[in-house]
Amino acid sequence: MRVSHMDAIERVDNDGLIWRPVRRHFGITAFGVNGCTGAMAGDVVIEPHDESSPNAGGHEELYLVTAGRARFMVDGEAIDAPTGTLLFISPGEHREAVAAEPETTVLVIGGTPGAALPTSPFEYWYAAQPHVATGDYERAIEVASEGLTDHPDNGGLRYQLACYCALNGQGAEAVAHLARAFAADPRTRAWAGDDADLDSLRDRADYPS
Asked: Which segments of the chain have a pLDDT < 50?
């Protein structure tokens, strides 16, 4: 683990564009991430580009304004971006930004489209949680089941699906998911011991032993 602060990241002046080499500072290899700072209002924080030049990575880019306020122009559309603003921009879209306030800093996270896939298993049951909260277990099952394409044997995902199916009155499906969860991740057996979501299954003859 390494901990730092943006103020500790080197400020590299490239003809007035202050580049903050976050990726190099940490030695990150999974994705591109750097910062850009405009010292004065009107300074460039994101140089004009569309990720298609020979010197670009062809990346999808997520911009997060971490300090100050930036003024973006994306394919001719002006966007006011105070601190906390997130902008996602695809390759081919022309983008640029200037500082609207002194010491405006934008963190840029980029990667080749598709490179981050498959996503982590947990993302699917996190995405299902709003439907669980409203009692729409059918939709929760649909959302979580999307993860089985890439993670068919993930114990945590199978366990969550067992819970959703049990709550939705789908006992056979719940038991099938639970058996696969137990086989894939022994911890899930302990989780099931006192999980009220699974109470409807406990007297079934096919409850996994």
From this structure: none
Rounded Cα distance between 135 and 133, Å, is: 6
pLDDT of residue 209: 85
Query: What's CA 24's distance to the chain center, in Å?
Result: 21
Burial class (CB in 10 A: 0-12, 13-18, 19+), 2: exposed
Q: Which residues contact 148 (CB under 8 A, 6 or more apart)?
A: 157, 161
The token pair at 24 is: 């190099």
Task: Report residue 177 as tokens.
Answer: 């998911």
pTM of the model: 0.89
Rg (CA), the chain: 23
Q: Take residue 1 and report the two structure tokens written for it.
A: 């683990």
According to DSSP, the residues that pair with 110 across neighbouring strands are: 32, 61
